[in-house]
Amino acid sequence: MNEQELKNALRDAVVASSPPPAMDTRRALEAGRAAARKRRATWGGAVAGLAVVGIAVGATLLPGLSGGSGSVQVGGQSERPSTTGQSARPSPSGPALTTTVTPKVPSGQPNAQPGASSKTQWPDGQQDRTATSGPRADKGTKVLNDLSSSLPPGFSAPDKQRVGFDDYGAMRRAQASFEEYVGQTQVWTYWAYTPVVKADAEGVGRLEIRVLTKGSTELGGATGCAAALRATYPVHGANSRCDTADVGGKQVALLTANTPVQNGLEQAALFWHEDGTLVTVAQAKGFANSGHPAMAQPPLTPQQLAALATDPKFHLD
């Protein structure tokens, strides 16, 4: 039998066989629905089994699950930080893990209110204690100029250069520095010094001033010689003699060093204004570390030094 004869025989066998039964659509639909229900039941059972296993594992690993606090206790410590600013009370099983929020306040400002966390310890946006520009710095410069212009006739305050002491900086200098907060009051120091020369005479002396504004706690509110003898600037009070000079009814403490001090200053006049502002003017017949010879005498007499300390133009805030 060749290939063609085989094909004909197979065709004849198919034709001779009985026809297939007609398709029952209702039975087919019911069979499909039954298969779908079976698949859903199988997946539901698997998911329920996994849930039971998860609950069992959770109950084993997290025995400290609290019922109503909203905090999960692990090893006796709460993982929910407190942000009220108060320390949390310790739990019976161990100390609570808390975060304490402490507002930042300016250094030395006890009356600062909470919420000033963006405020630095330096006032007026400064980066450090010294004001390098603005009204405060301008006041420091003015103090230097006023000091120079207050010399008696025959004396001047030139901008001299050091000889062999370049690392010590300029011989004329002014500075405005923040000292402290006292309540809401800012306490400042205005400080300046200058060389002093006398016409037709050799030598270079030194004149220095310091204005400490009202509110300072430096000497504990004391005044006069009682305070001056406790001072450490510009003449060390413990190593000095203190006399009282009268300037138009104003009492000025006049310190005279018994032995030379490191900065070379020999005499200082201290005057307290009624509001507590302290003005100190000091002098020396030589200018330490300048390379210049000293004058024969200090630039001012003790009475002139005391009068300069009471000058209203140095009463600053």
TrEMBL record:
Skewed-composition ranges (Polar residues): 79-133
Spans through the membrane: 43-65
Residue ranges with Basic and acidic residues bias: 1-10
Keyword terms, alphabetized: Membrane, Transmembrane, Transmembrane helix
Annotated region (Disordered), positions in chain: 1-26, 69-161
Listed name of the protein: Uncharacterized protein
Organism: Saccharothrix coeruleofusca
Lineage: Bacteria, Bacillati, Actinomycetota, Actinomycetes, Pseudonocardiales
